[in-house]
Design goal:
Blueprint (H helix, E strand, L loop, with lengths): L11 H4 L5 H14 L2 H16 L5 H12 L9 H8 L4 E6 L7 H20 L3 E6 L7 H8 L6 H24 L3 E3 L4 H18 L6 E6 L5 H15 L3 E6 L4 H11 L9 H17 L4 E6 L3 H13 L9 E6 L4 H9 L4 E7 L2 H17 L3 H18 L1
Parallel strand pairs: 1-2, 1-8, 2-3, 3-4, 4-5, 5-6, 6-7, 7-8
Helix pairs in contact: 2-16, 3-15, 4-15, 6-8, 7-9, 10-12, 12-13
């Protein structure tokens, strides 16, 4: 079946309409570097060394890779990115992307910043969702012990209770201000307690609409089955399931750990298997759209196209409030901007935080673009195409 309104992801004029020639050149240089693994490894290695020795890096990081992938160091600094995206009918998800912290004080800081993003979203209709990363609120060591059903010390027990209270405080604020909240996924060996907390929070806050969204990583062999199980629970217990779908971001680490620890690899055998499961999950979500709300977080062109096809087949409006497409800020603009121009609901994850604290996130983006076959090449090809179009036009 042909789409009535075909979304052309090759339309670079729309894809890069927000970028000046200067920004387009910087993006071209950035993706050229990450498209060469050797150069990317040297660049990130030098930055890691500089950070280790306490050398200043903000002067080179902030106007380059930080500016491309992040909204700013604060919510206030990110307002320009929010407004710019809104002018192209794209919503923002402000993401406090500080990682690698592991103290109760740090967890409380993350909670406060996340609550501030919720308050900001309640005041700004251009912010469609808020988000938090569980490891920003709770100890990975404690979550792993909980998953393995090991006994916690008294202090660990108290800290785990505090973590659960942080989760609840954020979701309660989101519910009161009517702002959907996305709970990001983590490594498989700490994901079970997160899933349990997320399900309890959905039971509590998703009675009238989907406020709390849990994340399903479809590169995991059991993810599609878990999605179907949770949807049935929501139907039986009369609440809405908030389902955020992603392919997954920790494949190498997951496989290495499974081999090291001697347990079955939880990741699909091939990319084709993951693509199959992701698209099957999209189909399942659209068939059950009365019971769940869908956030499809994907940079895969076919999956985004396929979702538009499923929506049309089901007779759903392009701007159905229960369905959102999502990509990361600084990536997949050919998908985001063309979908938004066609009238679909689109939101960009816009990270913010102090430059040095956001570096782990930026390292992951560099590694992801280097390791995912063809991803940086595709971005670079489209940027070159738009550069030539502007020169000839």
């Amino acid at each position: 079946m042909d789409l009535k309104t075909y979304v052309d992801f090759d339309n670079t004029e729309v894809a890069f309409s927000s970028k000046s020639n200067r920004k387009l050149f910087k993006a071209r240089l950035l993706f050229w570097v990450v498209n060469h693994p050797f150069l990317a490894a040297i660049s990130t290695g030098l930055v890691r060394v500089a950070i280790f020795f306490g050398l200043p890096v903000n002067w080179i990081i902030k106007p380059t890779v930080f500016e491309h992938f992040c909204g700013g160091e604060t919510i206030k600094e990110s307002e320009g990115s929010i407004a710019e995206l809104a002018s192209f009918n794209i919503k923002t998800i402000l993401d406090y992307s500080v990682e690698g912290e592991d103290s109760e004080e740090d967890f409380e800081t993350t909670k406060r910043e996340t609550l501030r993003t919720i308050k900001k979203a309640a005041q700004n209709s251009n912010m469609a969702f808020c988000v938090f990363k569980p490891t920003g609120l709770a100890s990975q060591i404690i979550m792993e012990k909980v998953q393995l059903r090991k006994n916690l010390t008294d202090e660990e027990g108290r800290n785990w209770q505090k973590a659960a209270e942080r989760f609840d405080a954020i979701c309660n604020a989101a519910s009161e201000m009517k702002i959907p909240i996305l709970i990001d996924a983590e490594d498989s060996w700490i994901q079970d307690p997160i899933d349990k907390l997320a399900m309890d929070l959905m039971r509590k806050y998703n009675r009238e609409t989907a406020i709390v969204f849990n994340t399903y990583q479809l590169y995991k062999k059991n993810a599609l089955q878990d999605l179907k199980r949770d949807c049935e629970r929501a139907r039986t217990e009369k609440f809405f399931l908030g389902a955020k779908l992603v392919r997954g971001a920790y494949m190498e680490k997951e496989r290495e750990r499974a081999e090291e620890k001697g347990y079955p690899d939880p990741i699909n055998e091939s990319k084709e298997d993951t693509d199959r499961d992701y698209n099957a999950a999209l189909e399942f979500c659209i068939e059950n759209i009365g019971q769940l709300y869908l956030f499809s977080g994907s940079h895969n062109e076919y999956s985004n196209y396929y979702l538009t096809l499923l929506m049309e087949k089901q007779g759903l409006a392009k701007n159905d409030k229960r369905i959102f497409f999502g990509q990361l800020y600084g990536m997949g603009d050919h998908i985001s901007f063309n979908l938004a121009a066609a009238g679909y609901n689109v939101a960009k994850y816009v990270p913010f935080g102090p430059v040095k604290s956001v570096m782990p996130y930026l390292f992951r983006r560099a590694e992801e673009n280097t390791s995912v076959k063809g991803q940086s090449s595709r971005e670079l090809t489209l940027i070159r195409k738009e550069t030539l179009r502007r020169k000839s036009g």
